[in-house]
Every structure is written in structure tokens, then in C-alpha cells.
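COMPLEX REQUEST
Ligand: flavin-adenine dinucleotide
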Amino acid sequence: MTAIKDSHLENQSFWQHDYGHYSPNAALTQNLNADVAIIGGGFTGLNTAWQFKKDNPNARVVVLEGAIIGFGASGRNAGFSTKLFGLEPEMVLLRWGKQKMIDAHHYLKKAVAHTQNLIETHGFQSDYCHTGMVRISYSQQQLDRMKKTYQLLQDLGIDGDLTWQNRDRIRQDFHSERFIGGIYETDTAHLNPCKQVRELKRLAESAGVEIYEASPVTRIERAATAITVATEKGRVVADKVVIATNAYSREVPDSRTLKARQYPLWTYQIVTEPLTAAQWESIGWKDRQSFGDNRQMLHYYRPTVDGRIAMGGGDAIVYKTGALVETPSAMSWKHCEAHLKWIYPQLKDVRIDYRWGGPVSVNVDMVPEISFVDDERIIYAGGCFGHGVALTHLNGRTIADLLNGQKTELTDFWIVNRKSISMPNDTLSFLGGRVARQALKAWDWWEERSLKDI
Ligand SMILES: Cc1cc2nc3c(=O)[nH]c(=O)nc-3n(C[C@H](O)[C@H](O)[C@H](O)COP(=O)(O)OP(=O)(O)OC[C@H]3O[C@@H](n4cnc5c(N)ncnc54)[C@H](O)[C@@H]3O)c2cc1C
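STATUS: Structure written out below.
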């Protein structure tokens, strides 16, 4: 197993390294009036800012990013632009029923198409590859469950882009003896998330959005006439505010009601050194589609444009320290590397060049939400789990509709102003997260107990 030699490589994503030099904007040092102030410069905040400004060219739109653009999940995720929503489809069905599950599928399908369209229309240089994704099973138990899921999606009529792949078919693409079957879905892409979020910054600024970095919001004050959003050295007095802080939302000041909405869950990734042509040849994977496994604690794999493998998952950890404290996990990185080499023993000597982690936003009922906070002038979005890339892009359009006071097909989507179940206090949220993690790990252990060397 490769030891972690360089602590500087920890917790800054490969994408951030790969981006190279980045010049952040200056911090807010003055007092401004704005139509809309947006807290958080990730996919949610920047998409919202751009969409609203496009609709209202004369409006003043200000984004306040606490760190730099690309610091949050948007700059460190795995870059899957996917239709995944919540946890297992069966659980969404059980909790929310058939129609809401179908509606969610259509919203996410639209989200993937919307993201692609945005990238192509505006010439984003974010390494977008629409190569599809395969969901893999390793054990017979996983395969049996996958067959039931496939049947369910067929019964609901939401299997349009899915194809069943048996062992022989899947091994034509992937030279791994661990793969025994799967489902290929065409409607998934992968991209470079750090380039994507900074391309969004470029687009928003070109439309006239003002973006301040290194400007953490320390206070939100609501008055009848306006809302004041204060940072250490300046403030914005706005008619409306969007809280686009995702997994960091528990730490947003003056947001008592937000504290109960979600909890951060940490997930970890690794990236290999660039593989040689012979190594690529040995593992197949010619079409460079992404893949993920049919586990509760999912592992996900994708290639990078410079010939590396990026992968992660297999665990998700709750900490008492919240989202802002960077929390390395040598155990998770070791697990990721072992899993990569379990799938592909051909790569046993491959070096791991990058390791990092980041918080995803999880809520009790396991599906995202976009909600007004106390009154209609403040909008919050969160709970995207590890499936927020495409979702947050479309959510930006949905939130812009809400800011415009318009009722649209998007604002009618049932996650908008749904009644979410409150998170318990910090201790209970933490303990609940730990219990859920153990339960999901036990489920995976049970389904994989017959596998060798895992
Ligand atoms: C390791 C990892 C892998 C993932 N992989 C995938 C994937 O492959 N596919 C997928 O669909 N999803 C994935 N996700 C989830 C996805 O990245 C997120 O759902 C999405 O990026 C959320 O975007 P956002 O803009 O809402 O939040 P973020 O990108 O987290 O942005 C929030 C921003 O708010 C800022 N902020 C916080 N507090 C303040 C404050 N007080 N004042 C000002 N600014 C503040 C933060 O600095 C941050 O930049 C992954 C997430 C992680 C962590």
C-alpha cells in the first residue's frame, strides 16, 4: 500500500491542483445595496446568480463566497453529472411514492440535459464527456437486487436510457473478474468540477454579477424593508437572499432554522498517477465511461482527461466538528486504494497521487430541498447528497424563478418548499449518522460476504 508521503496533497482536490494558478477576487470591503445577495459561490450560488441576472439585466446581484470559488463540494467532487436522486430508488419509492419518484426522474433528466446545454452553449472548458455510466454488481446478492431495481424502473417507465449488461458483455468493456453484471445508462456524463465552477464564475461575471471571495458571511439580519448580510469588512443590504452554502449551512450565522435542515457527511477520493498505455490496455475501459457499484456505500470510478483514474466512496463519515474543519481520513484513502486494486489487480503497483475529502449535505428524509426560510425573501437549497452536480445547475434556474416570484414547472417540483423532517440536535444527528453508517456497512458486508480478498 502506498504511504501518504506529502501532507500538502491531502484535502486539496486533484481538480484544484490540476487547475493551476487561480486568482481569487478581492474580499468585500464596502457597504452595498443589491437586489439579491447570494451566500456561497458553488454550483448552486453561481447558477442562481447567472440565471437571475440574465432574467433581470438591471438588477444588482452580489455573490459572497467565504473562501474561494471551488473551495466547497463544487470544486472537489467526482464530477458525475447524473440523474441519481436520494439513496436507493426503492427507498425513494417507499418514502415518497410512485408519482414523486417519476417526477424526480424527469427533473434530474432535465438537469443533466440543462448542464450539458449550458456547457456547450457557453463554450465551457470543463472537460465534459458524455460517455454514460455503468452500475456494477460484484456479488450474486447485489445482482439479484439490481435486477429488481431494473424491473422497478421498467415498471415505472423511467428506464429509457438503461440497458442490462450481463457478465460477458460487461467484461468486454472492463477487464475485471470482479464484475458479474450491471446496468449501463447513457444519460450520465463526467466533467472537471473545479474548471466547471470557475467557468460558471466567468459566465456570471460576464453578465454583470459581482463576486467577492474570502468574504464569509458572519451575520444575517432581517428587517421589514431589507435583509442585511454582513461580512467582516463590509455588508450587503438586499431585497432577497439565497443561502447556497450546502453542507456548511449549519454554520451559517443567524440561521436557527437551517441548523435543523441538514448535516455534513464526509466522503473521500483518490486519484492515481497517469496510467501508461499498457496499463490502460490491461484493464479495458476503452470507452472511458464512468462506473459505480451497486453497494449502499457506493464506490465510483471515472477516468480523467490526462489518463488517471479518479475514484472514491465506500464509506461516509459524520464528525462532531462540522463541515468547515478539514478532516483527513487515512482509513478511507487506504480503503479506496485497496478497492481499486481489488477490482484491478493489474494496477497493483500504480501510485496514488492525490487524496482528499469533502462534505456532502444530508438530511433526515434523504432527498434535496429548496425552501423559503421563514419568509419568501430568503431561499435555502441543500440536501443534495453526493448527487448534486447536475441537480444544482438546474436548481439555480428553479431558484431564479422563485426570486422572480414566478410559478413555473420547475417551482412546482415537489422538493420546492416540501416539509422536511427536522434534524435532531448536534449530538443526536452525529449518533444517528454513525448508526446509519454501521447499518449500511453491515448491509454491504452481508451482500459481499462470499467475495474473496475484499
Ligand atoms: C467528495 C465529493 C464527491 C462528490 N461527487 C459528486 C459527483 O460525482 N456527482 C454529483 O452529482 N455530486 C457529487 N458531490 C456532491 C456535489 O459536489 C454537491 O452536491 C454540489 O457541488 C453542491 O454545490 P453547492 O453550490 O450547493 O455547494 P458548495 O459547492 O459546497 O458551495 C457552498 C459554498 O458556500 C461557501 N460558504 C459556506 N459558508 C459560507 C459563509 N458563511 N459565507 C460565505 N460563503 C460560505 C463555501 O465556501 C462553498 O464554496 C460530491 C461531493 C463531495 C464532497
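REMARKS: Residues 39-45, 64-67, 71-74, 76-80, 82, 216-217, 244-248, 252, 267, 269, 358-360, 384, 386-389, 392 surround flavin-adenine dinucleotide (CB under 6 Å). The chain has two domains: 12-76+194-261+365-422, 133-186+263-362+430-448.
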